[in-house]
Amino acid sequence: MLNRVLGALVLCWAGMAQAQPAAIPLVDTHMHFESVPQMNFHASLAIAIKEMNRRNIRMSLLMSPPRASFYASINHDIEDLLFAAQAHPDRFAVLGGGGSLTIMINETRPEAVDEAMRQKFRQRAERIIALGGVGFGEMFIQHLSLPAMGPGHAYSSVPADHPLLLLLADIAAEHDVPIDMHFDMVPQDMPLPPILKSPPNPAQLQANRAAFERLLAHNRKARIVWSHVGFEPINTRNPQVVTEMLQAHPNLYMSFRLNRGGPRNTMALEPSGQLRGGWLALVQAFPDRFMLGSDAFYAPTGISRGSSAEGMDNLRGLIEQLPPELALQVASENARRLYKLKPGQPAAN
Ligand SMILES: [Zn+2]
To answer: How far, in Å, is the centroid of ligand 1 from the Cα of 20?
Structure first.
C-alpha cells in the first residue's frame, strides 16, 4: 500500500515536473565551498542550502577544487567536507582527492612513480572511498589560470597519461565511481589565447588531447566526467570536437558550466541565453552523457566565484530549453545513475 502511494507521488511529481520545467529538480554535480580568504564551511553550507532551495537544486556534489601543491591555509579535502553530507544526506554527496591526490600527481614526475608511490596513492584513494566519497574530484590535467578567478588562481598541468592518473582510472573502475576532471584541452600546440595572461600561463600551450584519449582508453570501466563544457577558456570544445570525443569514448561524460552565453560556438548559449542549435543536437545525440555542474564556490556571504547568478540561472535556462524527457535526464537522472545518488523529496518551501 505504502509503495503504491509512494509510486503515485513519484508519478505525480514527475508529471508536474514535465508540465513545468521550473519544477524539475536539478542535481549540481560540481560545486565547492570557498576557502579564500578563510574557511568557514558551516556558513558556506547554510548559504548553499538556501541557494539550493531557492533554485530547486535537489542535490549537490561537493568537492575541493584541484590543488597543485599543499597550502595549509586553503587546503581541504573530503574529511573537511563530509559534515555537509552527514548533516544533509539527501542534499549533498562528497567527492575526494581534489586536495590530496591532485598534489601527489602534480608533485611526482611520471618517471619517478615507483611501487611505493603507487601504494601510497592507492591507499589515499581507497581511504576516500571508505569515507563515503561518491567519486574522485576535482582532479586536473591542465588547469589554466583565469583572471576572473582572482590572483590566487594557479596554472597547473600534468600529463593526461601520468601513471598515477592511469592508476586512478583503475581504482575508480574497481570501485565503480566516476572521476570529475578539469581538463583545458589543447588539440594541437597553440599560442595562449590573448584573453589569458602569461605568466602564470605558458605563452605556448602544448597539445594534450591525444594523452587524454589514452587515459580514456586505458580502462573503459573508469567513467570520466569532463567538467565545464559549454563555457571554457580556450574555446577548443566545440560541438564537433565534443561529438568526436563522446563517440570515440563510451566512458566519457560531461557537465555543463554556463556562466555566460557568447558569440563562439564553444559556448552552449547565445548571448541572449538561447541554446545553440548545434548544442541541442549534440545533447540529443548523447542523452545519457550530459549533466549540470555549476562550479559555484559558496562563501559565507554568497557565491564568491566560479559561477554567478547568471550562471546559476543559465543551468535552469538550459533545462527549460530541452524536450521534457531529455530535460529530466540532464537535470538529474544522469547524475543520479552515474553517482548512484539518492536525492530526497522536494523541499517543503
Ligand atoms: Zn574546474
So the answer is: 31
Cα 226 to ligand 1 centroid, rounded to whole Å: 9
Tell me how far apart the alpha carbons of residues 193 and 315 are, in angstroms, rounded to a whole number.
Answer: 26
| Stretch 179-204: mean pLDDT | 94
Query: If you measure from the C-alpha of residue 292 to the centroid of ligand 1, how many angstroms do you get, rounded to a whole number?
Result: 13
Q: Calculate how far, in angstroms, residue 240's C-alpha sits from the geometric centre of ligand 1.
A: 22
204 found inside a domain: yes
The three-class DSSP label of residue 249 is coil
Coil, helix or strand at residue 335:
helix
Q: Of 144, 140, 138, whose CA–CA distance to 206 is shortest?
A: 144
Where is pLDDT greater, at 188 or 12? 188
Number of domain units in the chain = 1
Residue 120 within any structural domain of the chain? yes
* Per-residue confidence band for 150, with pLDDT thresholds at 50, 70 and 90: confident
Residue 311 CA to ligand 1 centre (angstroms): 14
Q: What is the pLDDT of residue 20?
A: 59
Asked if residue 177 belongs to a domain, the reply is yes
- What is the Å distance from ligand 1's center to 138 Cα? 7
CB count in 10 Å sphere of residue 185: 19
Q: Is residue 158, in this structure, part of any structural domain at all?
A: yes
CA of 46 to the centre of ligand 1 (A): 23
* Ligand 1 centroid distance, CA of 230 (Å): 13
Q: With 80 as the cut, is the pLDDT of residue 95 above it?
A: yes
pLDDT mean over 224-242: 96
**Higher pLDDT among residues 347 and 337, named by residue:** 337
- d(C-alpha 60, C-alpha 54), whole Å: 14
CATH code of 316's domain: 3.20.20.140
Q: C-alpha grid cell for residue 148?
A: 576572473
Model pLDDT for residues 312-341, shown as the tens digit of each residue? 999 999 999 999 999 999 999 999 999 999
| Residue where the block lists cell 570544445 | 237
Q: Measure 257 CA to ligand 1 centroid, in angstroms.
A: 9
Cell (9 digits) for 264? 563562439
Distance 228 CA to ligand 1 centre (A): 7
Range of the domain at 38: 30-339
From ligand 1's centre to the CA of 321, what distance in Å? 25
Whole-number pLDDT of residue 1: 42
Instruction: Quote the ligand 1 centre to 165 CA distance (angstroms).
Output: 17
pLDDT at position 7 over 50 = no
pLDDT of residue 154: 83
